[in-house]
Amino acid sequence: MPRTDKWPLWEWVLFTNAMGAIGICLGFFSGTKLAADRQAYIAVPAIVFLNLMLLAVRPRMAGARAAGKPPSAMGVLYKLLSERPILTLVCVLQLVGATRSTAATVQILQTSTRATLQSLPNSQSMVVRLIAASILMGLVTLLWWLGAVGLWVGRRWAWWLALTLNAQAAMTTGIIQLFKLNGLFDPWATTAVLLLLLRPIRQHFDVGRSRAKHIEVA
Question: What is the mean pLDDT of the segment spanning 159-173?
């Protein structure tokens, strides 16, 4: 059996998320019963923290040990997050969107199984619609997660995906609030859009540079 420190990245990803999911499920079943959306708000940050520690902090700690410098897990984590503070904040805001979408998906699924819904005359069609809505929301949730991971590893497509998702969320919330005679936008999505448009972030993802070069050549 190969040593765990020799595992490829994909095996570490599967192992980390499987163990995290099992542990969180056991904790929910054995502890106080919470609403499905609250469970999502607990489970998602826990999974993110576990991935961060095992997939990002652990390799750095191994490198520090090899160099003869005994590392501190919290010290390595702080250094990792403080190296790129603005990008870290953007990723956190993206994870906020992923968490909210996950909670909405779980809540829709939970609604489709309630006894009050099953007793309605048109319950079957409503259940089908709710399941379809949960699948659609699940796909949106996947996009939020892909955007967060892509931003962290520096993928250019993730910048465009994150900008699209957050701009859409901010505009949708703004329109809804406007009809309620309240002009407030979604603060999380709006802040994420503003940060994504900052020059250092755009330069980090090489956004707009090709157009600038084209103008210079012309």
Answer: 91
